[in-house]
Amino acid sequence: MAGTIFTSTVALNLKQTLDEIITDQYDGVEGDLDYPQWMANRPMNDNYEDDQEYAGGGLIAETPEGTEIVPLTITEGYTKRYQARKFAAKYIVTEEAMDDSKYPKVIQAIKRLKRAGFKTCDIDATNLLVRATNASFPGPDGVALASTAHPLAAGGTFSNMAATPMAPSTASWNALVAQLDQLVDNDGLIQGYKAVAVLHPVQQRGIWTVLLGSKMDPEAGNFSAINIIKEYDNNIKRVQLKYWTNTTTNWALQTDCDNGFQKRWRKKFSSKTWIDHNAELMNYSLSGRWDNGTSDPRCVMFVNA
Known about the structure:
The structure is a single chain. With 305 residues, the protein is an alpha/beta fold. It is built from five helices and 13 strands. The chain has helices at 95-100, 109-130, 170-181, 205-213, 228-232, and strands spanning 4-5, 40-43, 48-55, 75-83, 85-94, 150-151, 157-158, 195-201, 237-241, 251-255, 261-276, 281-294, 300-303. The strands form four sheets. The chain has a five-stranded mixed β-sheet with strand order 1-5-12-11-2. The chain has a four-stranded mixed β-sheet with strand order 9-8-10-13, with helices on one face. It has a two-stranded antiparallel ribbon with strand order 3-4. Strand 11 and strand 12 form a beta hairpin. The longest helix has 22 residues, at 109-130.
């Protein structure tokens, strides 16, 4: 029976001479998650929820005295749907394996399931960045999360990608922040957004620690100048993502845009245990329901370097 833990599976732990169990770490796995550092946790009240984009009328017109006021128009844009997806797994353990195991740590099914569940949850969240430029995974506006051609409800497009992809540096920071300062809102008018976090693969840990933490400018030849990144905002968060594995060079600035990255939970993880008396099998299961996404791509400025 595939997936079942028999006595043969744990045969070595039946030996009295076994000194120590070498196993996966599953205690404290919840505190080691990446996604809570950059995604908002929100509840879902139904199987699916919709967020609707609307664009206002733009600028108001100069109106001569005594003339009719020109009305503005509200335009309906895309609809973002969050659909609760179910994730589940189970262990099946024979009664003999339970009875004979002298090392109970080998069979701690619920904790192992919890570890598998939260790792799945974290990887599923990071896939938003892994697939950010992949047209096979379009967002609600019909293009990838990171695109130079996000459609505007009232006509036209905008970009949330670096105009010139560059490695992390003071220069690339300046260029991206300037783009954020002139990023347009749903009306197509310049709104400007502020960076709140740097999201990056673990391979960029060193450079971002220097760029964000140095008191003075870390660039060679400028050591007497101030560090403009630190001056820009001392509270920029650095989030290294261990599951962002499809690149070592891409990175992104997360913005203060409303309705940005979020994980919507329909059901937090819950476990069940039951016995199959016919075959004397113990069953341990874990399941949860959630969806990841963003209702506004302005939540990120992406560098596809």
